[in-house]
Amino acid sequence: MSECETSLILVPGVELPVTEDRATQVLQYASRIFQITGRSKLALAACLHEIKEEEYWKNVAESFKSYVYTEFGYTESTVSALISVYTTMVENLAVDPESIKDIPWAKLAMLVPSITVENKDELLSVARDSTQNELKKYLKDLNGLHVTESKTSTGNKFTFTVNDDQAEVIKQAIDKATTMYEGRTDLPPGMIYETIFAEFLLADCEDPTEEHLVKSIAYLEKLHNVTISYEKNGE
């Protein structure tokens, strides 16, 4: 048995050796950790994640929903939030559990929809130093009506919120732009948005300068996957 198979859950104070009765061991540990107060619930979330994925609950209940309600008094939504905190922070973002065990899990749950590799240090710091209401306001501003730009491993991510009427207009614009690339399968998703924004910028130019001409040609070349050459007429 390899060394990585000898421990169960990578959270503070949780080292469960692999045994033939692993399911019983995890179920029992989840019950014990639930009684501990004043610390992060990441350990419990890690247990619940495995209990759900491996269906250990079948040993003690008719359903996972019944198990978590009977054992902990939790609804499925609460358990989903707990598991989401664990998978997001520990598995996806590789946050050291020891460094966030002092942050209430409710605050960590609030961060899940917004936290990324790039902003995790900032958001965790804000969560640690803010009240729950202050954190709520901070996240609301972060994901508010104005565009928020952040770097990702593959490029730039823009996030913005619109109302239903605005969403309908945006959907129509996306559908229209998509038809311009009919038959093209080599384009990244961002090209559709670039098409919409480029059209707006080019249409807004009141002075058709040389720079505007160069930009227009570059846009058309990209849009139609062609190369355009030109020469100026004599004055």
Verbal overview:
The chain folds into two domains: 157 residues, no CATH class; 61 residues. Helices cover 54% and strands 4% of the residues. β1 and β2 form a beta hairpin. The chain is elongated and about 85 Å long.
Give a count of the beta strands, DSSP E runs of length 2 or more: 2
Low-confidence stretches: 1-8
The chain-level structural class is mainly alpha
Order of helices and strands: HHHHHHHHEEHHH
Q: Give the integer mean of the pLDDT values.
A: 77
Gross geometry: elongated
Gap from first CA to last CA: 83 Å
Question: How much β-strand is present in the residues?
Answer: under 5%
Counting H and I runs of at least 4 residues, what is the number of helices?
Answer: 11
Largest sheet: 2 strands, antiparallel
Helix content range? 40-55%
What is the count of structural domains? 2
Overall radius of gyration: 26 Å
Strand order of the largest sheet: 1-2
